[in-house]
Structure formats: C-alpha cells, structure tokens
Amino acid sequence: MEMNSNILFGYEGLRIQVQTMIETKQTPFLSMHLDQETKRVYVMADSESIKKLRESNALIEIEQILKTSFEEGKKLNLYDQKYEAKSACTRSLHSCHDPKHRHELSWEKDPHGWHKHQNPTVIEKLPTEILQRIFGSLELSDLKSVILVSKQWNAVASKPALWKEFDLPAKCCEKDNYVKFFEGSLSSNLQNLALTDNFDFQFDDLHFESLLHLELSFLEVGNIDLSNVSDEYVAKLVNNCKECVIEQWSANDSDNSLDQKKIESIFSQMGSKTRLESFELSSYSSTHGNKFDLSFVPSNILATAFNNLESLKLQSVNLETSQWKAIFDTMSVHSKVKHLCLEFFDPETVDMNMFDSVLSNLIGLSFCGTILKYEQLRHLLESLDKSCNLKTIRLEGDLTKISTKLLTRVLSYSEIRADQLTEIFQLIIKGASNIKCLTLIEVEEGVKDVDPIVLATAVNKLESFSFSGASDLSEDQTVEMFKEMSKGTNLKYLAEHGEGLAVNRMEHIGAVDPETLARAVHNLEAVWLDFEDSNLTSPQYSAILKRFGVLGKLQII
Predict the structure, then answer these.
(1) Where are the alpha helices (DSSP H) in 373-442?
(2) Please, is 87 exposed, middle or buried when counting C-beta atoms within 10 Å of its C-beta (0-12, 13-18, 19+)?
(3) How far apart are CA 216 and CA 237, in angstroms?
(4) Do 237 and 212 contact (CB within 8 A), yes or no?
C-alpha cells in the first residue's frame, strides 16, 4: 500500500485505502489493528477472507494469545520470523531459535471452553428479537459491517426483512461489476431488482443463473432486451419473488422485453408453483390505445395463474370476454385474490354480472382510469350493498345519479361532493354508513357551511379524515372537532391530500384550548407536528409535550 499527502494518516487513512482496494479493485486483504487505548485487537479484511478466518477459529486463538500477554503485563519484545530464521542457532540437532511452522499452533482449541472464562458484554446477552430491531434501524452500509462481527450477528442481520431496501448497486449495470457482485456473498441479501435499459450489456442465461438462487422481495421488468434468456429462466425469476411488476413501453412487440412464449411460460409456472403474492402488468406505450395484449394466452392458464395471487393489478391490458369469464368463474370457486385493480380496461369486454359472485371474497377493488356507465355503477353498488367485505374501493364515473344513502352504505372510502356533506355526516352519526375514510380533497366549497357539532361528531366516528387544505374548516368547526376528539375518537390520524396533516398548520388551531388539544392529539395514533410556520401557541406545545407521560393511543409523532 502506498500512502500520499492526499490520504488521511492513522487508522482512518488506512481504512479508506483498504476500502478502495477491496471494493474497487476487488483485492483480498487481511490485517490486524491494535487499539492503544483499549488494548484490543481489531481485524480489517474483505468479506470472503473474514468468513474463511472465522471458520478456522483463528481469530479466537489470536485473541487469546494477545489477551494473555497483555493481562500478564510482560515486557513485550519484537519477534521477526524472517530475521530469527536467518540468525537461528546452527548447532547440529539443535533448533532452539527456529521459527515454528504454522500448523504447530493450536488452532483447533475448543472455542466454547475458552468463552466460559469470558464475561459476555450486555449486547451479547440480548435476545435475537431485540438485536433484529436494533439492526433494523441501521443504514444498509452499517448493516454490511454488522454481518462481519460474529456468527450470531451474521445470522440475525442476514434476515431478508432487514435488507428490504437493498437494491442492486448502480455500478452493477456494467458487466464486469455485475459479475464481481454476484461472486461475493453479499449478493445473497439482494431484495429489489429492476431489469431495465440501464444495463450496458445484454442478458443471457449465464447472467440469469446468478439471479435464480435469490428470493427477491420485488422485481421490475421494464424496457430491456431478454431475447437471449431462455423462457424457463425468465419464468423462474418472476415466480421466485414476492412482488413483480412487468411494464410494456413500446407499441411494437419486437421492442418489448417479453415475447409471447416468455409471457405464457410465466403464467404456466404461476399457476403451479410460485412465491408471488402481488403481480402487476402495465402498458405505458406512447401509441394511443395500445394495450398489453394477453389475448393469445389460453383462458384456463390465465385463470389458474391470476387466482394463485393475493393482489392483481392489470393496467391497460387486453383480454377477451371469454378470458374474463374464465378468470371470474375460477375466482368464485377457489381464489387467493384479495385485492383486484383493473385500470384503463374496456368495460364493454366485461359483464358486470361476473363480479356478483366474487365481491364477497375481495377486500380491495379499484377501477381507476376506467369510466363505468351509470348502469354498471348502479349494478356494482347494489351487488356490494347485498354482500361486501371491501375495505377500499375506487370507482370512476358519474355518481351524481346514485343515491347518497346507497353510497354511504356501500363505500368505506369516499370522495364526496359539497351538496352531499350534511346528509352523509348525519348518516355517519346514525351508524347507517360504512364509510371509514372520508376525503374532502375535491370539495372546494360548502364544507364551512356544515353545522360544527354535526361535522365534529361525524368526523370522530371515522378512522381517517382528509382535507384539501389547512384552511378548510371554520374556527367553530375546528374547536368543536378537537373538543369531541378529546373525549374519545375512532380517528387514527388527520390527513391533507392523502398525506399526514401537520396539526400546527391548521388555520384556526390556535383557538383550541391547550389542554383540550393535548388530550385530543394523544387520542390519535399518529400526528404530524413541526415548529416552522406554526399556528400553535407555546401553551399548546407545552400541554402536548407534557402528556407524553400519560397513557394514550399516540404511537407516531
């Protein structure tokens, strides 16, 4: 190693150089560092070398030798093996100064026996569950270091749940770096993979072999040439992850990553053996009206495959009426599907009667981007009114002709008009509504005209209430809402445009009594507060903070 004026001196300088050698030049490295203050020896090495070193128990032996020397307080003198060998005694049949061969050292001592004499640190006594929660708070760069500490830490830190943010490093889009990455043990922790046009090389079966042993959490297949990869390998990779998104970006089939044989192979395996829980097919072609064509896939294969999933999203997908019928017929008999999202599909290809027998099995349904006719909307809502376990539903179409009572009985999540507000709030108060999440994002006027007590009572029977802005409510409505909330509420959080509403930004929040506000805030499960551009007063902040010693529902702030 060469040191220069641009490199830090001491341990940090050494660490920077070693990291460059290992990660950039892929050079094996092994060294030991003595900390003069703690009198402890630390190892610095590449991941493969340290793995081999641990398997040989060499670290335990080395630590025992050094620890013994320090404890006995001996005066330490330099031993240079090379120098001693040259100056060794030359008398015949005498080798008092000859260096010992490495195999003569006792590398195979029982490590468990040695540890009996050690006092384990507090962190070594921590249960696996606690360690996992601690490691879960670390950045990935720190987690990579944790797995090198000990076998125990390696076992805990290697759990997939801790690596859920671990994506393929950007530099691996270059062929040489890709190959080197999958030669190392760290690749086994990869959780997220995006196969897009960012790679500077064309994939083949050899490249895919490195991926087949992975158990990915998320896979995205976009605009990438996979023509040199076998159909079987593509199907295996897709079906060996938990969540997969396949996107089509071109109107020309020859330009897309998956041809018809690969698509059919994916669905064939999906119907028999798959780890997939969530699957999405989407078309983003710039050509107007172009859809992801699945009309060539046999109906029975599609029906079996789709019903083997928990969540299915089809966006701009072309299916024949016979295929839809097979899918829903299978879904009505045996299906794992709980969330169904059909976006930008042709409603003319689907008979709404098909939904009647499957709605009771779903907990989420979305027709985003699909404009349903009045007759279709009414039929769907009436079917839901008879049998419905849905927690979320999204419909697009003209709801103005649908009665308010039917909407509130059926919908658990609703975006409503100003002229419906008072009637819907009264139905919520009477318990004649299934609405749990209410949003006023599209309501520009009329909110402030609702009676404050009616609004406050209804809102606190919901689980979430979303505004379009912090100035939606009048002063009286704001005061009454938090007054009711302080007595007890079903609300979990307040929202603004679908995201957490910072309570301090509400226009009239300063008019609420500090103690009332504090009790109300601590009756929520999550609340957003900041100290910039705040309408909260100092007594209000003080009251909220003081209640942290009192038992409440608040979990996130």
Answers:
(1) 374-386, 404-410, 421-430
(2) exposed
(3) 9
(4) yes
3-class SS shares of the chain: helix, strand, coil, % to 5: 45, 15, 40
Query: How many angstroms separate the CA atoms of 219 and 192, rounded?
Result: 6
Helices (H), 447-503: 452-459, 475-487
What radius of gyration do the chain's Cα atoms show? 32
Tell the residue number behind the tokens 């720190």, with chain if given. 142
Low-confidence ranges of the chain (pLDDT < 70): 1-11, 35-41, 57-125, 250-256, 285-289, 387-388, 398-400, 408-420, 440-445, 467-471, 496-500, 549, 551
Per-residue pLDDT tens digits for 109-119 = 344 443 444 55
- Give the span between the Cα atoms of 519 and 486, in whole angstroms: 5
Encode pLDDT of 397-416 as tens digits: 766 677 777 776 666 544 55
Q: Which residues contact 200 (CB under 8 A, 6 or more apart)?
A: 173, 174, 175
Q: What is the pLDDT of residue 438?
A: 76
Contact between 346 and 321 under an 8 Å Cβ cutoff? The reply is no
- The token pair that represents 143 in the structure block: 């987690």
Tokens of residue 483, six digits: 């007054």
CA distance 415 to 536: 29
Q: Check residue 240 and give its pLDDT.
A: 94
CA 513/CA 523 separation, integer angstroms? 16
User: CA triplet 134, 159, 174: central angle to 5 degrees?
Assistant: 110
pTM: 0.59
pLDDT at residue 1, rounded to an integer: 46
Task: Provide the token pair at 159.
Answer: 């759990």
Interatomic CA distance for residues 330 and 337, integer angstroms: 11
pLDDT at 548: 80
